[in-house]
Amino acid sequence: MADILVVLPTFNEIDNLESILGRIRQAVPNADVLVIDDSSPDGTGDLAERLAESDPGVSVMHRTGPAGLGSAYLAGFRRAIDDGYAYVVEMDADGSHNPSSLPAMIGLARAGADLVIGSRWVRGGQTRNWPWVRRAISRGGNLYSRLLLGSRIRDLTSGFRVYHATALLDVDPSTVSSQGYCFQVELAWRLERSGAVVIEYPITFVERTLGNSKMHAGIVAEALWRVTLWGIGRARRETSPAA
After folding, report:
1. Residue 43 φ then ψ, to 5°
2. Which residue in 28, 82, 97, 210 has its CB near the most CB atoms, within 10 A?
3. Host domain of residue 65
């Protein structure tokens, strides 16, 4: 049995799914892939089933949705833990994350990292085909989050990650309050605070060429609001007198 599960949430990714699955299977042929589809009206779920029929390493979870990116990943993490996988990969289905980075990232996890983040904002990392506004939002949001949360992670919002499954055992889904890209900030920060070993690996993020981005103003607003609340709570805890 494979000891790596790649969790791949999808919603209306019919144009990208077959390609990204092929690239994942080529980069990490010994890994299994779990496609989590939130009732995509474009038929992504049906395509995933057809692809899974010809590849025993691919399975599909269908959800009534869209139910949110964060809850999709939590469902995938639970499946990985229940089925005994040692490592869990999260990545986007739109082709923006290059699976060729996975062997190196998984190698870092095998060497002892609890969380390996594919980072755009460390030396060697970069983005391609992103307008300056998107780069500014990402850089500014990460800087804001680091300052308020006291984090050393430079790309808190990256959705390209490898987790050691044991690091996820103490993540109670009922206590994860965020969805969207803020989920990435919350989970990385929680693991960092718990003393987990977090490593950032430089990647090249390439903007999707097919399909529509799921990013919208509401996602950004949620992230700013929640990070601000977490930062205020952190400041209060650090300045309150000891009991």
Report:
1. 95, 10
2. 97
3. 4-239
Number of domains in the chain: 1
Distance from C-alpha of 209 to C-alpha of 33, rounded to nearest angstrom: 23
Q: Is 132 left (phi over 0), alpha (psi -120 to 50) or beta?
A: alpha
> Given the structure tokens 């980075």, which residue do they identify?
101
Q: Which pTM was predicted?
A: 0.90
pLDDT in tens, 94-148: 999 999 999 999 999 999 999 999 999 999 999 998 888 888 988 998 999 999 9
8 A C-beta contact, residue 62 and residue 73: no
CATH number (domain holding residue 110): 3.90.550.10
Give counts: helices (H), strands (E), the chain.
7, 9
| Three-state DSSP string of the chain | CCCEEEEEEECCCCCCHHHHHHHHHHHCCCCEEEEEECCCCCCHHHHHHHHHHCCCCEEEEECCCCCCHHHHHHHHHHHHHHCCCCEEEECCCCCCCCHHHHHHHHHHHHCCCCEEEEECCCCCCEEECCCHHHHHHHHHHHHHHHHHHCCCCCCCCCCCEEEEHHHHCCCCHHHCCCCCCHHHHHHHHHHHHCCCCEEEEECEEECCCCCCCCCCHHHHHHHHHHHHHHHHHHHHHHHCCCC
167-200 pLDDT, tens digit each: 998 777 677 877 767 889 999 999 999 999 999 9
User: What type of residue sits at position 98?
Assistant: N
